[in-house]
Amino acid sequence: MSAGCNQGRVTESSKVALTRRNRYDDDASPTPRTMTAGKSTPPDDRAVRAMVDMLADHDPAIRARVVAHLAQAGERAVVVLKAAERTTPHPDRIEEALTAIHREQALRGLDRFRSVEPAGAAETGALLVARVLDPRIDADQVLRFLDKLAEAAPGPMREADPAQALRTLAVYMYSVCGFDGARNDYPNPANSLLDQVVTRRTGLPITLGVVYLAVAQRVGIPLEGVGLPAHFVLRHPDVADRSYLDPFNRARLLNEDDCAEIVQAHGFSMGPEHLAAVSPQEIAARICRNLILAYRRRRDVEREGLARDAHRRLRPGQDMLTV
Predict the structure, then answer these.
(1) How far is residue 242's CA from residue 223's CA, in Å, rounded to a whole number?
(2) Nearest Cα to 62, choosing from 97, 89, 88, 31?
(3) What is the chain's percent helix, strand, coil content, to nearest 5?
(4) For residue 251, which of 156, 167, 155, 147 has the smallest C-alpha distance?
(5) What is the mean pLDDT of residues 232-236?
(6) Shortest CA distance to 232 belongs to which of 323, 310, 142, 312?
(7) How deeply is 247 buried, as exposed, middle or buried, from its count of CB atoms within 10 A (0-12, 13-18, 19+)?
């Protein structure tokens, strides 16, 4: 994945971003109990290998139960499964189990991400949501891409004048790096998956906003996400006039009246409460709601269910559909 702007080294701020990712991801998964009813001891390597051997069973119900238990075993099972890949006559079953484990790790990552609200990075939550839908995603590759975007950013983005920094960010992200809204393909679920957005350089307002927020954080711009009804914009809190930026519409700079017009064009009205900054957790939850709608339109029941699972981890008890 090439940033398409000047390549650069990883900064201290990007190392922090990688550390944040690791806090919410794979290795923190708790060790499961064994498959034997009534036992509470974690499985040792021998028990995990025995479960992996059971993937050869002809009964799909047994295999499904085994996969579910392996998913709870986390990294220990990953090591055994990857070793078994070289000799197994059933590589598809090994792949199925690995997918289930990585998906469970992403869901547990969302549990931890929710617990640090309102801290955390927006890209961390967005990547965890994307990994629930596709556990094969290389999250570190996406983070390195964001690092390179920030490294290649022009000097004025780091200047003390907030208005100049915001204008430069807008020009850089739209005119130089080519990020813009998916106006001709809005319902496509790919527009809500961060790995796809950075690859295709297009997406929904909120996922484009996550890319802007990630770059801004790395260069020291205190950008905020603002969840308008039916739209998403960004705001620099230290800019007096035209402090809002619309990442979906050619990085246009806006004032509050412009924001109200956008909301009205979607058939809603805007109140002061709609201009409040939203947390990274709410950004991730809203991405889930967009995905629920996108997969519902496609009648993709399985993926709609996965998006709902991700949303429940972020907002327990809120099985809703307000986008």
Answers:
(1) 13
(2) 97
(3) 60, 5, 35
(4) 167
(5) 98
(6) 323
(7) buried
User: From the CB of residue 94, how many other CB atoms can be counted at a distance below 10 Å?
Assistant: 20
Are 149 and 215 in contact by the 8 Å Cβ rule? The answer is yes
CA distances from 299 to 43, 54, 84, 107, 199 (A): 39, 33, 36, 23, 25
Q: pTM for this one?
A: 0.84
Task: Quick: pLDDT tens for 104-137.
Answer: 999 999 999 999 888 889 999 999 999 999 999 9
Distance CA 261, CA 258 (A): 5
- Of the listed ranges 84-93, 218-227, 246-255, 261-270, the least confidently predicted one is 84-93
Q: How far apart are CA 45 and CA 289, in angstroms?
A: 39
Which amino acid, residue 308? R
Q: What is the mean pLDDT of the chain?
A: 87
Q: Where is 253: in which H helix or E strand?
A: strand 252-254
Regarding predicted confidence, which is higher, 23 or 115? 115
pLDDT at 119: 82
Do 323 and 230 contact (CB within 8 A), yes or no? yes
CA dihedral 204, 209, 215, 216 (to 10 degrees): 160
Band (pLDDT 50/70/90 cuts) for residue 320 is low
Phi, psi of 27 (to 5 degrees): -75, -10
pLDDT band at 70 (very low <50, low <70, confident <90, very high): confident
Average pLDDT over residues 154-183: 94
Q: For the chain, what is the largest distance between any 2 Cα atoms, rounded to a whole number of angstroms?
A: 67
How does DSSP classify residue 277?
B
Residues 190-227 as b/e (b if ≥16 CB within 10 A, e otherwise) read bbbbbbbbbebbbbbbbbbbbbbbbbbbbbebebbbbb
